[in-house]
Amino acid sequence: MTTLNELPQVHDLRSALALLSQFEDELIATDEPVDPMAELSGVYRYVGAHGTVMRPTRVGPAMMFNRIKGYDDMRVLIGLLASRKRVAHLLGSTPDRLAQLLKESVSHPIAPIEIPREQAACQEVVHLASDPDFDILKLLPAPTNTPDDAGPYFTLGMCYAADPETGEHDVTIHRLCVQGKDEISMYFVPGRHLDTFRMKAEAAGQALPISISIGVDPAIEIGACFEPPTTPLGFDELSVAGALRNRPVELTPCLTVAARAIAHAEVVIEGELLPGVRVREDQHTHSGKAMPEFPGYTGEAKAALPVIKVKAITHRKHPILQTCIGASDEHTNLAGIPTEASILQMVERALPGFVQNVHCPSPRHRQISGGAAGEKTLGERRRPAEAGGAAGVRRLLRAETRDAGGRGRRPV
């Protein structure tokens, strides 16, 4: 039997997969050819997507598709973080301690470092946009999850850029729709830090250099999903991943833009967010829809989104493109587990020693779980949670602190 000390140390996606292979029923693979147009996500719906994905679906293993139709040397991984138990395995923790682990990590960040390009696995193969046959979709099998989607999407790209005024960096995950052979639209929820950087650059009439790293250490993906006020403007969330691994995330300079990329990513897209350029998200399909979202509906396509002009795509040899279904438990875990840590941190500041734990469940559970020292758990109250996840958790925590015997009436 493999002991904890014998398990592979995770520093990139491949070492994460090696770790998962030590656990039963956490990772499966198929050599059957699959089409990235709706078929790939349709298969995984039955294997392990769960969440609010159309029934029947279930909690199941992550899945590697080794043969993608139209792509000779590209694999696609889906569902890596679609199980809380699997997230715990990948972070060397237990499911019930994930909130505590992330709270500790965000409080003790380890900043990323830069390594030379020669040491960066992400640049083993280089495709320049100036090449005559360059085309994003000829190189990368970006999946289309449903026939109604606005187009092929990259759903797990770590978008990394710098504030053009201060040089401070930020990493986040955004909805990225392929719009042309060298163009990608980028959707920003209002208030996102990268959008602040983009607007500063645009106000100066400048493009914002950006890298999109796909297929990375899952600690980076989890850390990237922290939001303010836990990680304010200027806080580089890569430092959370550094704390989770007790070693800095390694970055490397991009080849074609003034940005840095995650050095051991499977795939990196280099580009610039263009000033003053907008595109309709569903310009090619006119479906009016974007893609499935975690509350269980298909999001509306946006009328005018900023555009990334792609300058290069680099990748490892025999690369793995990582993706997720927006309505799956993977999406909920990415958003929910950092939210648990954030709420735990806020509540501990307001009510020291009162809350033992916080749980932000998948919308499929429809109730909150938590723990207050010397009190009933929130889960025992059996109060329903809105499908909105984090917002529902915050509202319920406010209600619970008001009900706690007159103690701690400050809002959370």
Notes on the protein architecture:
- Helix 4 crosses helix 9 (329-350).
- With 412 residues, the chain is α+β, with helices and mostly antiparallel strands.
- The chain has one domain (13-337): Roll (Pnp Oxidase, Chain A).
- The strands form five sheets. Strands 5, 6, 7, 8, 9, 10, 11, 14 and 17 form a nine-stranded antiparallel beta sheet that branches. Strands 1-2-3-18 form a four-stranded mixed beta sheet, with helices on one face. Strands 4-12-13 form a three-stranded mixed beta sheet, with no helix packed on it.
- The protein is 25% helix and 24% strand.
- It comes from Serratia rubidaea.
- InterPro entries: UbiD, UbiD-like_N, UbiD_Rift_dom.
Strand content: 15-25%
When the domains are counted, the total is 1
CATH topology: Pnp Oxidase, Chain A
Distance between the termini: 45 Å
Q: Count the DSSP helices.
A: 10
Structural class, judged by helices and strands?
Answer: alpha+beta
> What is the assigned CATH homologous superfamily?
Electron Transport, Fmn-binding Protein, Chain A
EC number: 4.1.1.-
Biased composition (Basic and acidic residues): 397-406
Keywords: Lyase
Organism: Serratia rubidaea (Serratia marinorubra)
Which helices and strands, and how do they pair?
Blueprint lengths: L12 H8 L6 E4 L8 H11 L12 E4 L9 E4 L5 H7 L7 H10 L5 E2 L10 E4 L7 H4 L13 E2 L2 E6 L6 E5 L1 E6 L2 E5 L5 H11 L4 E7 L3 H6 L14 H8 L4 E4 L6 E3 L4 E13 L9 E4 L5 E3 L4 E11 L4 E4 L5 H22 L4 E5 L9 E4 L17 H14 L9
Parallel strand pairs: 1-2, 3-18, 4-12
Antiparallel strand pairs: 2-3, 5-17, 6-9, 7-8, 7-11, 9-10, 10-17, 11-14, 12-13, 14-17, 15-16, 19-20
Helix pairs in contact: 4-8, 4-9
